[in-house]
Predict the structure.
Amino acid sequence: MDFVFHLNSRSTIALYRQLYSELRLGILAGRFEAGARLPGSRHLADSLGISRMTVNECYERLASEGYLETRPRSGTFVCKSLPDLSFSPASPGIRESVPQSRFLPRLSRYGAAVNAPLRRPDSPGIIRLNMHGPDVVNFPVNLWSQLQNRRMKSGRSDLLDYTQHFAGDIQLRHAITMYLRKSRALICGPDQVIIVSGSQQAIYLTARLLLNEGDVVAMESPGYRLAAKVFSSQGAAILPIPVDAHGMKVSELKKHGARAKLVYLTPSHQYPTGVSLSRGRRMELLHWARKSHTLILEDDYDSEFRYSGRPLPSLQGMVDDAPVLYTGTFSKMLFPSLRLGYVVVPRSMKNAFTSAKMLSDFQSPSFEQAVLADFINERHLEPYIRRMRTIYGRRRELFIHALKKHFGSRVKILGDNAGVYVMAEFKTNLSQSEAHARTFRNGVSLEQLYWPGKAPPPRAGRVSFVCAFAGRTDAELPLAAELVASALL
């Protein structure tokens, strides 16, 4: 590997001094880490177009000052303990003088909208009930590895090359179609399935393709924070629609006429309240959407995990040619780092979505798509889901039992018997922010509700949190309940 240095042959400062200063600064600044091997003097001289004597002289001086050490037959290395921890140039003026002014880039409107720090990771040891990932410990890693190895040994070099199918692997799209037709009653063909990097990218692509500055997006309130962030970053106005025990209040949506260009909702398991949209409201919403020429984005993020009652059909499959975009993800179904999901689009929009996906990140990984297609086609997916449904159902009961053990009637669990989280309402004299801070100091990170638009006034003596249980162990959940109790009671 060639090393790059800022050397100026026209400078009045000797090349030896320039190289010495660059190397010393690089060592002090961490560019060359302790113990790192530097290139041989002949190689460095050839790559920089200077004499080997210059390099040798520079190395010898740095070695005499304790920055470098030479090992016989091994080479030249950065010393593990340095003589000087200051960060100041040995020879001022070697670099060209640059005025000390703060550079302020001119961000786009989108850049300004997202120019905010992301949530910092929780400290080690925190029980993270704010993370909605699945249980990755029980994933069949050995089976997945076998499928990977078989694909790699097949000799198909096209899996390592750029794809010619920007909508995604054909076999995977077909497998997803068959699965959705059976498990979610979707009405679709493989040509309507676009492979994306999780449902978050599906939301982002939908916003890019549909929304202009000032367009209105209706969404559930409370709702999904990151969806609202995507929509508002495109300049859209958020229209919050309240949720009750039967899901989004479609009657409230209809009061706004045809203002909304897009309706985003989670009908099978509303996030975060956990309720499902009733059949009557589903038909009412579909009829209104057709009449008002409004598109619906149905986010079906964890519908596989229902622990009682009959499975709910998708909104998309309730009527022919529904004005619905349907998205799902394998991140919660299998494991988050897979970063594969899908969006099922009306045929009139498949070219737009395919192009937008290509322009966004060119393609999702071909190799992982092929392995996932094998996992589904060889009938590993459905038994795995059944197994995890049992595990998650047990953990849900374990966590709720632990909460009720400590809180008794002072805790209320909301929503259906489904999903990978519960919404819990606690009776306490603490405010919402105080309760969140105290539980965090006690070692549990909970998720607060997000209200698009104006939040309702807090209920006196009550606080609510979202508690994700699926990715936590059987030992962590009772402990988390105990820690929450000691913080709030």
User: Anything to note?
Assistant: Confidence is low (pLDDT under 50) at residues 86-94. The longest strand covers residues 237-244.
